[in-house]
Write the structure tokens for this entry.
Amino acid sequence: MEKINLEYLGEKFNQLQTLNPDEFISSVRKEGFHNFNKKGLPTYKNEEWKYTSVSDLFRKEYHLCEDEANIEISKSDIDEMRLPGHENSNELVFVNGKFNGQLSTIRSSEKQLIILPLEEAVNGKYKELVNAHLGKSNLFVNDGIHALNTSFIYGGIFIYAAKGQIIENPVYVYHISDARNNHILSQPRSLFYVDEHTKLQLVETYKTIGSMDSFTNEVFEVVVNANAIVEFYKIQNDSSNASQVGTTHIRQIGKSYAHTVIVSLNGGIIRNNTNIIMEAQGNEAHMYGLYLLKGNTHVDNHTLVDNKMPNCFSNEFYKGVMDGRSTGVFNGKIYVRPDAQKTNAYQTNNNILLSDGASVNTKPQLEIFADDVKCSHGCTVGRLDEEAMFYLRTRGISKEHAQAMLLHAFASNIIEQIKIEPLRQYAEQLIVERLTEVEAEG
Amino acid sequence: MLSIKNIHASVEGKQILKGINLDVQPGEVHAIMGPNGSGKSTLASVLAGREEYEVTEGSVEFLGKDILGLSPEDRAREGLFLAFQYPVEIPGVSTTNFIKTALNEKRKYHGQPPLDAVSFMKLMKEKMNLVEIDKSLLTRSINEGFSGGEKKKNEIFQMAMLEPKLTILDETDSGLDIDALRIVASGVNKLRDENRAIIVITHYQRLLDYLQPDFVHVLLNGKIVKNGTKDLALELEEKGYDFIKDQFSMQEAV
């Protein structure tokens, strides 16, 4: 099977356990490593990974847990990836999966936002929160790749968004993989605790430096309390040697509002797990995704909405355009547990294939154990609307331009869901650039 | 201006046009009439360049150029305009932006610079008044949620903006009430001049009452079987197509 170097990982794991012996985190890691050894990396045979093979990526040897002292990332490396609106944001830099305080800029006051290294948080004022919530996603995502992240929890952060605060400065997270000398496995792991009556916005983006491969195996766990609002955005526009599995695990433990948007444009193999766990009555969640793919890029959006309590609402809307030999996957799982009466859960996935080599697999998965619920799902896979193309062309608009106009129209109602204005404009510009490329190549 | 010679065309292997000849001079209005399935809309599609239609024989010259080898967009840029029988709704594409793009692509094709925003708005306003179209329609997505009449009016508005040399109105009267028909027809009439020609495809006489064609042609089973003036349209209205069919089948038999 895969040529994953278990010996190397074991060595690194033992090293980490010895050097960072915090009792609680060590025990979480230990359980993670146990699970990883038991399950191994997921292959096509695992139903959840049927269309996305990460084990193939491990045929090469990745380096892990490189010492922060050796990092040679400069401010200018980060400048290149700063997202519009950054002047007003808390910019958190992760290098090879580890939070780097020196390169980061925190603009919110401590009254609003506490940002601490996980290892520090677990021993101080927030010990109880970390103990109570770190690692809870393991119950829902219990595959080997998630366990691998858990095995190496180190260098992440704990974010506490204080009660009753509208956090005006969004949190921008820059994930950098330094693949100049080695293939790099980055495994960021963080915990967000959003207290009552609070609003927090988070934006993540990724960059691989160097020509070797990077693999980012990320897990962000988010706990949302009553009357809080969280918005999570991801812009995935890294190079083709950059692959990732990113899990955003949001638990709405009080009646709250979650909003996620993932925009995927470039990369190698990308798997996004977006999980919403409805642990309180009356929760609301909106999940959006746009994937505009070309070349060999593979993007797999797996969503999970687990309705454990009554009266929750969720809406998922994912759209994709595949060109070249790119592949898309959408898998939307909705659980409605026996207690979750009056659940409203909707799901839509629309896809356009631009080339014969492109493909998409889309699959809704509804498991309903309550009787008074409204759930719907719909998916489409098709080509561009030929009638609309012809109509535009009969007005003198070139085929390429007409295609770009139609695709832009297709994509725009997802982009509109980005509520941070400079970021929305940036995403809009990326889409326009991508569509002009298609135009130029076409 | 337009010279159609012995056009044969098929779609999905089925022969629909079986040798059509038609000459249109600048300033003329030609009506093409005929029963359902006679090939009227196919002729419009073939002229506009719809790709599903295969021309198996014959030629079409427009302003001295063979246009059968041209893409739909190049035909449009050369000055051909098809007003659709069923204008397409395109959600997410603003009408104004669409018309601006179309106009500027045409200008570029003719080596002209793009219109600046002010001139464009001025032109829009002028043509809006001309065809009596509501401004609010133009801020919406193309034809999205438009009524039948609004869609047809939008077609005539686009025609006014693009100033084609030859316009083909493909059953523009279908689905219109009397008032909408009058507004659409008067819009078309205002755009007529001695340099422009119009081909009106229709089932009925009523649009022709307003447009007063110079020539009327009857299409039957993929061929033009009768040519005449506007009196022919009146005769058809009175007697129906059957009398032509009868006449034609008798001729065939002979």
